[in-house]
Amino acid sequence: MIERISPNSNKSFMGIFDGKELVGMVSFHKEIGEKERHKGDIYGMFIHEDYQGKGLGKLLLSTLINKVKKDYPDLEQIRLSVVSNNTLGRKLYSNLGFEKYGVEINALKEGDEYFDEDLMVLFLK
What we know:
Aminopeptidase, GNAT family N-acetyltransferase, alpha+beta
Protein backbone atom coordinates (compact mmCIF):
# COMPACT_ATOMS: atom_id res chain seq x y z
CA MET A 1 0.00 0.00 0.00
CA ILE A 2 1.29 3.46 -0.89
CA GLU A 3 0.35 6.47 1.20
CA ARG A 4 1.07 10.13 0.82
CA ILE A 5 2.51 10.84 4.22
CA SER A 6 2.86 14.60 4.38
CA PRO A 7 1.80 16.89 1.55
CA ASN A 8 2.27 20.65 1.62
CA SER A 9 2.54 23.36 -0.99
CA ASN A 10 5.89 22.32 -2.44
CA LYS A 11 6.97 19.13 -0.63
CA SER A 12 5.61 15.63 -0.59
CA PHE A 13 6.62 12.40 1.14
CA MET A 14 5.29 9.01 0.09
CA GLY A 15 5.72 5.70 1.81
CA ILE A 16 5.05 2.11 0.90
CA PHE A 17 3.89 -0.14 3.71
CA ASP A 18 3.66 -3.83 4.47
CA GLY A 19 0.80 -3.70 6.94
CA LYS A 20 1.89 -0.99 9.36
CA GLU A 21 5.60 -1.34 8.61
CA LEU A 22 7.20 1.34 6.42
CA VAL A 23 9.32 -0.56 3.87
CA GLY A 24 10.07 2.22 1.40
CA MET A 25 9.86 5.96 1.00
CA VAL A 26 10.58 8.82 -1.36
CA SER A 27 10.37 12.58 -1.00
CA PHE A 28 9.85 15.35 -3.54
CA HIS A 29 10.55 19.07 -3.37
CA LYS A 30 9.28 21.51 -5.99
CA GLU A 31 11.32 24.65 -6.50
CA ILE A 32 9.36 27.82 -5.73
CA GLY A 33 11.72 30.53 -6.99
CA GLU A 34 10.40 32.47 -9.97
CA LYS A 35 13.13 31.25 -12.33
CA GLU A 36 13.20 27.65 -11.06
CA ARG A 37 9.58 26.75 -10.37
CA HIS A 38 9.54 24.51 -13.46
CA LYS A 39 11.84 22.04 -11.64
CA GLY A 40 11.52 19.59 -8.78
CA ASP A 41 13.85 17.20 -7.00
CA ILE A 42 13.51 13.67 -5.68
CA TYR A 43 15.31 12.98 -2.41
CA GLY A 44 15.66 10.03 -0.11
CA MET A 45 14.45 7.19 -2.33
CA PHE A 46 14.69 4.07 -0.19
CA ILE A 47 13.40 0.50 -0.26
CA HIS A 48 14.28 -1.79 2.66
CA GLU A 49 16.72 -4.47 1.51
CA ASP A 50 14.26 -7.29 2.35
CA TYR A 51 11.81 -5.79 -0.18
CA GLN A 52 14.21 -4.93 -3.00
CA GLY A 53 13.90 -6.65 -6.36
CA LYS A 54 10.10 -6.96 -6.09
CA GLY A 55 9.09 -3.94 -8.17
CA LEU A 56 8.27 -1.75 -5.17
CA GLY A 57 10.78 0.94 -6.10
CA LYS A 58 9.28 1.25 -9.56
CA LEU A 59 5.75 1.29 -8.12
CA LEU A 60 6.61 3.94 -5.53
CA LEU A 61 8.50 6.20 -7.91
CA SER A 62 5.90 5.85 -10.70
CA THR A 63 3.16 6.76 -8.23
CA LEU A 64 5.10 9.82 -7.08
CA ILE A 65 5.82 10.97 -10.64
CA ASN A 66 2.16 10.65 -11.64
CA LYS A 67 1.07 12.50 -8.49
CA VAL A 68 3.43 15.46 -8.93
CA LYS A 69 2.57 15.75 -12.63
CA LYS A 70 -1.08 16.10 -11.59
CA ASP A 71 -0.40 18.40 -8.61
CA TYR A 72 2.04 20.70 -10.45
CA PRO A 73 0.96 21.16 -14.08
CA ASP A 74 3.75 23.71 -14.62
CA LEU A 75 6.42 21.15 -13.67
CA GLU A 76 8.77 20.51 -16.61
CA GLN A 77 11.54 18.42 -15.11
CA ILE A 78 12.28 16.17 -12.16
CA ARG A 79 15.89 15.81 -11.03
CA LEU A 80 17.63 13.34 -8.77
CA SER A 81 21.10 12.10 -7.91
CA VAL A 82 22.18 8.51 -7.39
CA VAL A 83 25.49 7.10 -6.17
CA SER A 84 27.39 6.22 -9.34
CA ASN A 85 28.08 2.63 -8.25
CA ASN A 86 24.38 1.97 -7.45
CA THR A 87 23.70 -0.13 -10.55
CA LEU A 88 20.16 -1.13 -9.55
CA GLY A 89 19.15 2.45 -8.74
CA ARG A 90 20.56 3.82 -12.00
CA LYS A 91 18.75 1.07 -13.94
CA LEU A 92 15.44 1.84 -12.19
CA TYR A 93 15.69 5.55 -12.94
CA SER A 94 16.74 4.95 -16.56
CA ASN A 95 13.83 2.55 -17.07
CA LEU A 96 11.46 5.29 -15.88
CA GLY A 97 12.87 7.76 -18.42
CA PHE A 98 15.50 9.60 -16.39
CA GLU A 99 18.61 10.63 -18.33
CA LYS A 100 22.10 11.18 -16.94
CA TYR A 101 23.30 14.74 -17.48
CA GLY A 102 26.39 14.89 -15.29
CA VAL A 103 28.45 13.56 -12.42
CA GLU A 104 29.22 15.23 -9.12
CA ILE A 105 32.72 14.06 -8.19
CA ASN A 106 33.26 13.23 -4.49
CA ALA A 107 29.63 14.11 -3.75
CA LEU A 108 29.51 11.94 -0.62
CA LYS A 109 32.13 11.10 1.97
CA GLU A 110 32.01 8.21 4.42
CA GLY A 111 35.08 8.07 6.62
CA ASP A 112 37.99 8.51 4.23
CA GLU A 113 36.11 7.18 1.19
CA TYR A 114 34.45 9.39 -1.42
CA PHE A 115 31.56 8.49 -3.71
CA ASP A 116 30.52 10.15 -6.96
CA GLU A 117 26.88 10.76 -7.80
CA ASP A 118 25.23 10.63 -11.22
CA LEU A 119 22.90 13.56 -11.83
CA MET A 120 19.73 12.55 -13.68
CA VAL A 121 16.68 14.33 -15.04
CA LEU A 122 13.25 13.34 -16.31
CA PHE A 123 11.87 15.86 -18.81
CA LEU A 124 8.08 16.08 -18.62
CA LYS A 125 7.58 18.61 -21.44
